[in-house]
Write a structure and sequence with these properties.
The complex is a heterodimer of chains A (about 475) and B (about 400).
Chain A: H1 4-18, E1 23-24, H2 27-30, E2 52-54, H3 59-72, E3 76-79, E4 96-99, E5 106-110, E6 115-118, H4 124-132, E7 136-137, H5 150-156, H6 163-166, H7 169-172, E8 173-180, E9 185-187, H8 201-204, E10 213-221, E11 223-224, E12 228-236, H9 239-250, E13 258-263, E14 278-286, H10 288-304, E15 308-309, H11 312-324, E16 336-344, H12 348-362, E17 374-376, E18 380-388, H13 395-412, H14 437-450, H15 469-479
Parallel strand pairs in A: 2-4, 3-4
Antiparallel strand pairs in A: 1-2, 5-6, 6-10, 7-11, 8-9, 8-10, 12-14, 12-15, 13-14, 13-17, 16-18, 17-18
Helix pairs in contact in A: 1-3, 12-13
Chain B: H1 24-39, H2 49-54, H3 61-72, H4 80-87, H5 94-98, H6 105-118, H7 127-137, E1 167-170, H8 173-177, H9 183-194, E2 199-200, H10 211-215, H11 219-236, E3 240-243, H12 246-255, H13 259-262, E4 264-267, H14 268-276, E5 289-292, H15 297-301, H16 306-314, E6 319-321, H17 339-342, H18 344-359, E7 365-368, H19 371-384, E8 389-392, H20 393-402
Parallel strand pairs in B: 1-2, 1-3, 3-4, 5-6, 5-7, 7-8
Classes of the chains: A alpha+beta (about 475), B alpha/beta (about 400).
Chain lengths: ~475, ~400
C-alpha cells in the first residue's frame, strides 16, 4: 500500500498526465478491482484493494502511468475484462490498476493481408462484430467471449473452442506493442505471420499475465468468414461413449473447427432420447461443398459409434450454451471451482478415475452434478470439471490440498495444470510440478531483465524459491489492510 | 445469511454489520448483490448502455452489486461516489437476459437507491425537484393538478362515474402534461370512442402512479402515492384499467401487490390488439415502413412483445421491419430510471444509438409505446437532424382508423 503523502503526490501526477476523469481513488470506485472471478479464501472478498485505478486511452497515457509507477516502484496491474479465474488481477500488494477498457478501438483492418490491429481493451465479441463487417473473423471463442478482452486473452493464453481449425489466441498473435516496466515502448516485430529474424518477442507476452509489461496494441491473424457452418451433435449413453466417438474422430483426417464431449444432467430438456446422457459434437466450417461432405462424414461416425443424431435445432441450442452458461456461473450459494487441466488422450480415463475417486475423495470434495466430466476434443484433452469447495471447518485447506493433488496427477500423466485459465495465484505454489528449476530460473531471469524492480503484477505466476505463496501473501497483506 | 455459511469464526455474518433493519425487499436485494459479488463474471457489462457510455467497471450491474454488498457490510461509506454509481443505471434489465444465475439486478439497484435515501444521502439535483413536484402536485413535472385535464378538453364528458363506467383510461403524468405528446392520449381516447368502449378518465383527479419515485428509490413517497391510487381506483369500481404509458403499466401491474388481482390492467397495445381483431375492416392503409422499439417496462418487465407487433401487422399498407436488437434483446432508449433527469447528456447519447439502430433498418418511422421512449428518441432525432419520425403506436392506429371511414364494411 502507498502511504498518504506519496499517494496524494501520485494522484496529482497521474491526474496531470491523464486528466482527473481517468484516475479513480475513492473506495466505491475501487471496489470492482478488489478481485477478479478467482475464489478468495473465506471472508477475503474485499481484502485486497488497489490504491488507484487509471483508465488510459492511448499508449502514451499508459507510458505516463508506468513512468510514475517506475519512479516510485509501485505495483502495476494491467487489466482487461476482469474475468480471470486464477486471481491474476487480485491486487495483493495494492498499487495501480491499469484498466484498459477504454482502449477499445480497432486501429487497422487489412483485408488483403488478413490481419487486424486492435487496442487491448476491446472484447473478443466486439472484434468479431467489427470484423464481420469486412467479411472476416478472428475465430476466438471462449466462455467469457462477451467480456474477455484481447489484451486479457493474450496475457492468459486463453482458449478458443474453435482451436482445431483456427488455433487459440496464442496462434493468432502476429505482432504486439508493449509498454515495458521502464515506460519504453517495445514493438515486437512487423505485422507478418512468419519471420526468421531473431527471437519471436511477441511470444514472450503470451500468457505472461501482465508480469512483463502492458500490452497496448495487438496485430492478429484473421480469416475470411466461411461460406457454410454446421454443427453435428450426437447423444450417447454416457460421457465415455461420447469420448469414444471423439477419439474415433481424432483418428480421422476430418478437419473440424472444434468439438466437445460432456455429460448432461437434464438431457431430456435438450432433446436427448431417454437414458442418453452423453453428448459429443463437432463444429464444421468451410466452403459449402466441403462442409456438406464433412457433415455426412461426421454423421456416419456418430451412428457407427452408437450415437443418436440430434436435430439441427437441438444441436444449435446446445452449441449456443457454451458462452451462455459462463455468465453467472459463480453466482450460486454453493462455492464451487472449475478446472481446465490438459491430459494426453490415452490417459483421460485414468485421470478422471484417479481425480474423483482418489484425489478429490481424499479431501472430501464433491463434483458439481453434471460437470464431472467435460472435455474439449483435441490432440491433448482439455479435461474440465467443477467441484464444490468445502465451506466448513478446514474446507479451504482441503481445497488447496486437492488442487495440488490434481496438479500432481495431471503433470505425472504428462499433462499441464492449467489449459486456459493461467497460473495467477491459484496454481503458483506448485508450478514446479510442471517446470524444472532450470525452466523456472529462465523465467525469473526474463522477468528480472524486463522488470528489475518487480513492479509488473508482482507476486503472480512465477514462484519465488520460497514456496507457500498464498500464506506469504496473506501475511504481508494483513499488515497493510486498508 | 449466505455469508454465515463460512462459519461465524471465519467471517462476520453480514447482518451484524448492517446499519439499519432491512425489510424483506432489501434483504432479497442484498442477497442478489452478494451472489453477484461472489461471481463477478461481468457479463452484464456486455450490452449495458450505461457501461458503454462511461466505461468504468463500477458503472455496471456487477459494479452496483459489489458496491451494495460492501455498503451493507459497512466497508464503504454512502457518499457522492456511491450515489453516482447507484444512479447511473437505466433499470433496463437487458443484463438480466444474459445472467444464467437469473439475478434480479434491476430490483437490487432500486433497493440500493432506497438504501442510500434511507441513510440520508442527498438526492441528485433534478431528482430533488421531481420529488418536490410529486409531493406538492402529485406529478413529477411541476404542473398543477388542474393542468392534467387540459389535453382532454374535448373529452370532459368522459369523467369517470364510479360504479357505472366499466373501463378506466389511466392517462399518466407524462402523456397528460407534456404538450408535445398529447396527441397520443387523444388518439387513444378517440380510438376507444370509435370502438364504442364504455370508458372514463379521472382527469384532474388522477394521481401519479409513483413510478418515478420508485425507480429513484424513494420508497416512502411511492408508498404514499400507491395508497392514494389504490383508494381512488377502488372507489372507481371499474373492471379494466387501460394505460398507454409503459411506466404506469409496469408500476400498476407489478408494484401494486393487490391491484392486478382485483382489476384487469391492460397496456394500450394489449387493449388495441384485442379490439382491432374485430375492427380490421375499418382500417385505412398507411403506406409506411416502420420499425418498433420495445420499451423496457413493456417488454422485458411485462413481457408484452407480440401485441404491438400484431397491431402494426394489422394496419394495411404498413411494413414492419425489426432492428438489429429487438424483443427481449432490445437496446434501451436511455430515458428511464431518472437517468435523463440526472445525466441528460448520457441519456441523449444512448438515445442516439437506438435511433441509429432504427435508421439502419431504412424505416420511415420509429414507433414505440411509451411516453418516455418517445421523448428520448425524438430528442435524439432533433439533436442529430434525423429524418426519422418518432411516433407512438396509438397515433398510428388512430391515423389508420380515422381515415378508414368509421363504418364496418
Amino acid at each position: 500500500m502507498i502511504d498518504g503523502a506519496l499517494l496524494e503526490d501520485i494522484k496529482a501526477q497521474l491526474s496531470n498526465a491523464l486528466g482527473e476523469r481517468k484516475v479513480l481513488w475513492e473506495k466505491a470506485d475501487l471496489l470492482p478491482y478488489t478481485r477478479d472471478t478467482f475464489r478468495n479464501p473465506p471472508g477475503q472478498d474485499f481484502k485486497y484493494w488497489p490504491d488507484l485505478v487509471v483508465l488510459p486511452e492511448t499508449t502514451a497515457e499508459v507510458q505516463a502511468v508506468v513512468r510514475v509507477a517506475a519512479q516510485h516502484k509501485i505495483p502495476l496491474l494491467p487489466k482487461g475484462g476482469g474475468s480471470n479465474r486464477t486471481g491474476m488481477l487480485v491486487p495483493i500488494y495494492g498499487g495501480i490498476v491499469i484498466d484498459t477498457i477504454r482502449m477499445n478501438h480497432v486501429l487497422e483492418v487489412s483485408v488483403p493481408n488478413l490481419y487486424v490491429t486492435v487496442q487491448p481493451g476491446i472484447t473478443l465479441k466486439e472484434v468479431e462484430l467489427r470484423l464481420a463487417g469486412y467479411g472476416l473473423a478472428l475465430n476466438q471463442e471462449q466462455g467469457s467471449f462477451k467480456v474477455a478482452t484481447i489484451g486479457g486473452s493474450i496475457s492468459t493464453a486463453g482458449f478458443s473452442r474453435k482451436h482445431q481449425k483456427y488455433g487459440t489466441i496464442s496462434d493468432r498473435v502476429m505482432s504486439l506493442e508493449v509498454v515495458l516496466a521502464d515506460g519504453s515502448v517495445l514493438r515486437t516485430g512487423p505485422k507478418v505471420l512468419y519471420t526468421s529474424t531473431g527471437y519471436r518477442l511477441h511470444q514472450l507476452f503470451i500468457g505472461a499475465e501482465g508480469t512483463l509489461g502492458v500490452i497496448t496494441e495487438a496485430t492478429l491473424r484473421v480469416e475470411p468468414l466461411p461460406e457454410a457452418k454446421e454443427v453435428v451433435l450426437g447423444f450417447y449413453d454416457d460421457f465415455w461413449a461420447a469420448n469414444e466417438a471423439a477419439q474415433r474422430t481424432m483418428a480421422t483426417s476430418v478437419t473440424f473447427v472444434g468439438g466437445e464431449a460432456y455429460e448432461l444432467v437434464d438431457s431430456r430438456a435438450w432433446g436427448a432420447p431417454p437414458g442418453k446422457n452423453g453428448v459429443f459434437y463437432v463444429a464444421l466450417e468451410g466452403t459449402k461443398g466441403e462442409v456438406e461432405a464433412q457433415v455426412a462424414f461426421m454423421k456416419n461416425i456418430i451412428i457407427e459409434t452408437g450415437g443418436v443424431l440430434a436435430s439441427q435445432e437441438d444441436a444449435l441450442r446446445l452449441f449456443g450454451k457454451y458462452t451462455e452458461q459462463w455468465c453467472g456461473a459463480r453466482a450460486r450459494p454453493e462455492i464451487d471451482n472449475c478446472f481446465t487441466t490438459v491430459v494426453p488422450m490415452e490417459k483421460l480415463k485414468e485421470y478422471y478415475d484417479r481425480l474423483w475417486n482418489d484425489v478429490m475423495a481424499k479431501q472430501g470434495i464433491l463434483h458439481v452434478p453434471g460437470v464431472k466430466l467435460w472435455l474439449d476434443v483435441g490432440r491433448y484433452r482439455l479435461a474440465g470439471g467443477r467441484y464444490y469447495i468445502p465451506q466448513k471447518g478446514e474446507g479451504w485447506t482441503e481445497y488447496r490440498k486437492a488442487a495440488r493433488g490434481q496438479a500432481e496427477l495431471a503433470t505425472s500423466l504428462g499433462g499441464s495444470i492449467s489449459g486456459c485459465h493461467g497460473v495467477g495465484l491459484e496454481h503458483m505454489d506448485y508450478l514446479d510440478l510442471e517446470f524444472s528449476e532450470v525452466a523456472l530460473d529462465v523465467m525469473r531471469s526474463i522477468k528480472k531483465s524486463l522488470d528489475p524492480d518487480k513492479i509488473m503484477n508482482p507476486g503472480k505466476m512465477i514462484p519465488t524459491k520460497r514456496r507457500n505463496h498464498l500464506v506469504e501473501i496473506e501475511k504481508r497483506a494483513s499488515k497493510n489492510l486498508k | 445469511m449466505f455469508a454465515a455459511r463460512w462459519g461465524s469464526k471465519v467471517m462476520n455474518p453480514i447482518c451484524s454489520a448492517r446499519l439499519v433493519d432491512m425489510d424483506s425487499e432489501l434483504d432479497a436485494a442484498i442477497k442478489t448483490a452478494e451472489m453477484c459479488s461472489l461471481c463477478r463474471c461481468g457479463c452484464c457489462k456486455d450490452e449495458c448502455p450505461m457501461y458503454a457510455e462511461i466505461l468504468e467497471e463500477s458503472i455496471s450491474p456487477k459494479g452496483r452489486n459489489v458496491l451494495f454488498s460492501a455498503l451493507s457490510q459497512g466497508l464503504v461509506p454512502p457518499d457522492s461516489r456511491t450515489v453516482r454509481i447507484a444512479y447511473s443505471c437505466l433499470l433496463c434489465k437487458r443484463d438480466e437476459i444474459s445472467c444464467s444465475a437469473g439475478l434480479k439486478n434491476a430490483q437490487a439497484t432500486e433497493a440500493l437507491r432506497q438504501y442510500l435515501i434511507d441513510h440520508g444521502v442527498p438526492l441528485l439535483s433534478g431528482h430533488d425537484v421531481m420529488v418536490k413536484s410529486l409531493e406538492n402536485y402529485r406529478n413529477p413535472w411541476q404542473e398543477s393538478k388542474a393542468a392534467r385535464s387540459r389535453w382532454a378538453r374535448e373529452f370532459q364528458d368522459r369523467r369517470l362515474v364510479p360504479g357505472k363506467t366499466r373501463t378506466l383510461f389511466y392517462v399518466g403524468c407524462t402523456y397528460a402534461l407534456d404538450r408535445s405528446l398529447q396527441e397520443s392520449p387523444r388518439a387513444l381516447a378517440k380510438t376507444m370512442e370509435r370502438f364504442g368502449e364504455d370508458f372514463g378518465m379521472l382527469l384532474d383527479m388522477e394521481t401519479c402512479c409513483g413510478s418515478t419515485a420508485k425507480r429513484i428509490g424513494h420508497k416512502r413517497l411511492f408508498e404514499e402515492l400507491r395508497r392514494e391510487n389504490e383508494k381512488s381506483l377502488k372507489e372507481a369500481r371499474v373492471d379494466t384499467i387501460v394505460t398507454a404509458c409503459s411506466g404506469c403499466f409496469k408500476t400498476l401491474k407489478q408494484d401494486y401487490p393487490e391491484l392486478d388481482k382485483e382489476v384487469q390492467i391492460l397496456h394500450s397495445t394489449e387493449y388495441l390488439a384485442r379490439k382491432m381483431r374485430d375492427h380490421r375492416q375499418e382500417m385505412a392503409p398507411v403506406m409506411m415502413k416502420v420499425t418498433y422499439h420495445d420499451p423496457c417496462h413493456l417488454g422485458r418487465y411485462a413481457k408484452v412483445y407480440e401485441a404491438p407487433r400484431e397491431i402494426l401487422r394489422s394496419i394495411p399498407g404498413l411494413t414492419l421491419v425489426e432492428m438489429s436488437s429487438s424483443g427481449e434483446l432490445s437496446r434501451c432508449c436511455g430515458g428511464g430510471a431518472g437517468v435523463k433527469t440526472a445525466y441528460p447528456d448520457i441519456s441523449l447519447s444512448i438515445a442516439k444509438k437506438r435511433l441509429k439502430d432504427a435508421e439502419a433498418t431504412g424505416a420511415d418511422a420509429l414507433v414505440t409505446a411509451c411516453p418516455f421512449c418517445v421523448q428520448s428518441l425524438r430528442a435524439a432525432a432533433e439533436a442529430t437532424g434525423s429524418k426519422m419520425k418518432v411516433l407512438s403506436l396509438e397515433v398510428l392506429v388512430w391515423r389508420s382508423l380515422s381515415q378508414g371511414g368509421g363504418q364496418r364494411n
